[in-house]
């Protein structure tokens, strides 16, 4: 199983980025797929997830600005990030979970596979 995240970069506040997570060895439509982020000196935190039911969950700080989606044909998950803020600066990681339920989907431990991070830097 491989998850490869890409799309990070340096942007000014207010701009947008789209992250991609290309997967192999799993079927994204049969898994819960999540995005997490880790800022320097901080713990990794939940950002968004899309369940196998296609419902999406977001942490409060990104609601209305970020959108998670997936392309089943490409086995790829996306994170569209709009109205970026300096506090969104972090390494972003995608992850896959075969067994996450609604009560655990925000937990790092619920995920079976992780990709490498892609760095997002938002300047003010």
Keywords:
globular, single chain, 4-stranded antiparallel beta sheet, 124 residues, mainly beta, 7-stranded mixed beta sheet
Description:
- 0% of the residues lie in helices and 49% in strands.
- It has no helices and 11 strands.
- Strands 2, 4, 5, 6, 9, 10 and 11 form a 7-stranded mixed sheet that branches.
- With 124 residues, the chain is mostly beta strands.
- The chain has strands at residues 2-6, 9-12, 17-24, 32-38, 45-50, 56-58, 66-71, 76-81, 90-97, 113-114, 118-123.
Radius of gyration: 13 Å
CA distance, first residue to last residue = 37 Å
Name the overall outline.
globular
Helix/strand order: EEEEEEEEEEE
Helix- and strand-based class? mainly beta
Helicity range = under 10%
Q: State the low-pLDDT regions, or none.
A: none
Mean of pLDDT: 96
The count of strands amounts to 11
| Secondary structure tally, helices | 0
Oligomer: single chain
Largest sheet: 7 strands, mixed
What portion of the residues fall into strands of 2 or more residues? over 45%
Summarize the structure in short.
With 124 residues, the protein is mainly beta.
Topology:
Blueprint lengths: L1 E5 L2 E4 L4 E8 L7 E7 L6 E6 L5 E3 L7 E6 L4 E6 L8 E8 L15 E2 L3 E6 L1
Parallel strand pairs: 2-11
Antiparallel strand pairs: 1-3, 3-8, 4-5, 4-9, 5-6, 7-8, 9-10, 9-11
């Amino acid at each position: 199983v491989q998850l490869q995240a890409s799309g990070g970069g340096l942007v000014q506040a207010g701009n947008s980025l789209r992250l991609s997570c290309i997967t192999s060895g799993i079927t994204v439509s049969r898994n819960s797929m999540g995005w997490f982020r880790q800022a320097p000196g901080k713990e990794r935190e939940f950002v968004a997830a899309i369940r196998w039911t296609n419902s999406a969950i977001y942490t409060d700080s990104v609601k209305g600005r970020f959108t998670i989606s997936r392309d089943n044909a490409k086995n790829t998950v996306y994170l569209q990030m709009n109205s970026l803020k300096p506090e969104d600066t972090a390494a972003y990681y995608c992850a896959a979970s075969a067994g996450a339920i609604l009560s655990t989907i925000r937990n790092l431990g619920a995920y079976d596979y992780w990709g490498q991070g892609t760095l997002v830097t938002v300047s003010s």
